[in-house]
Amino acid sequence: MIQKKTWLLLICCLGVLFSACGGSTAAQPTPKEEQKRTVTYLGKEIQIPAKIDRTVAVGYSTLEDMVLLGIEPVGGPTYPNGPAEYLADHLKNMKSVGNRTETNYETVISLKPDLIVAHERTTPETIKKLQKIAPTVQFSKQAKWRENFTLLGDIFNKQAQVKQILAAYDTQVADAKAALQRSDKKELVVLTMKIRAGGISVFPPTFYINDILYNELGFKMTSDMARVKAQEKLPLERLAQINPDIMIVGFSPFENADKPQALEDLQKNPIWQGVKAVKNNRVLLNKVHPLIQGNTAYGQKAALDMIEKEIVNK
Question: 106 lies in which domain range?
Answer without folding.
Answer: 31-157
